[in-house]
Write a structure and sequence with these properties.
Elements lengths: L1 H36 L4 H17 L5 H16 L3 H21 L4 H17 L1 H22 L4 H13 L8 H17 L12 H10 L3
Protein name: Tetratricopeptide repeat protein
Keywords: Signal
């Protein structure tokens, strides 16, 4: 009888674990789909970041909630004009990525976002910050490429760096276009691990290739 009771208890625990995982997956799928399909305002990005924070607190063995919380804060930082808010958002995004990396170290996607944070910080004061954060951004992308050479976001971000850096400081629009095109080639064969793993960027890069002057 005791063995039978133990068996039922273990079965119930197993069912609870499966339910929790399914609930996590479905919730994340809805949120990621919203990021994919909705043109977000600053307030919406902040709300999404806070939602991902709550999921991260409940699912501490998962790296993706912190990844997406950081992503939302970075997107908001790029649209901000207030230097103090840009730095505060960048600081918060860094903390999210630190937590994500504890769960999944050596992560190409995390290093891509770290590179974007460095770029956001440069935007506060390009003349003084470029010397500090420009090399940091490049280092993060070098790590991201080494960790996953097939990651299309690496080449997109490398292209962004070359396109928006003045020629006097190493920028090259022609090479940027080549990197954008390489990114699109990588997207053709790129397969995310699941519906909620990072897969953003393809449509944006296509738009850049069509509209930017090279």
């Amino acid at each position: 009888m005791r063995k039978f009771i133990f068996a039922i208890c273990f079965s119930l625990l197993g069912l609870q674990a499966v339910y929790a995982q399914n609930n996590y997956q479905s919730t994340m799928e809805k949120l990621v789909t919203q990021l994919d399909t909705t043109k977000m305002s600053g307030e919406q990005y902040l709300q999404m970041a806070n939602t991902f924070d709550r999921i991260a607190a409940a699912e501490q063995g998962e790296w993706l909630p912190n990844y997406y919380a950081a992503y939302c804060r970075i997107m908001l930082a790029f649209s901000e004009k207030d230097p103090e808010k840009i730095d505060a958002l960048s600081d918060a995004a860094e903390l999210n990525l630190d937590k994500a990396e504890l769960v999944k170290p050596g992560n190409s996607e995390v290093n891509c976002l770290r590179s974007m944070i460095a770029s956001a910080r440069i935007g506060v004061d390009p003349m003084t910050r470029g010397q500090v954060y420009g090399p940091k951004s490049a280092e993060y992308l070098a790590s991201a490429k080494a960790e996953d050479p097939g990651n299309p976001r690496v080449y997109f971000l490398l292209g962004q760096s070359l396109y928006y850096t003045p020629e006097a400081f190493g920028g090259d629009k022609a090479k940027a276009k080549q990197l954008y095109e390489l990114s699109l080639e990588k997207f053709e064969t790129f397969k995310p691990e699941s519906k909620i793993h990072p897969h953003w960027g393809e449509e944006y890069v296509k738009g850049l290739v069509k509209t930017l002057k090279f």
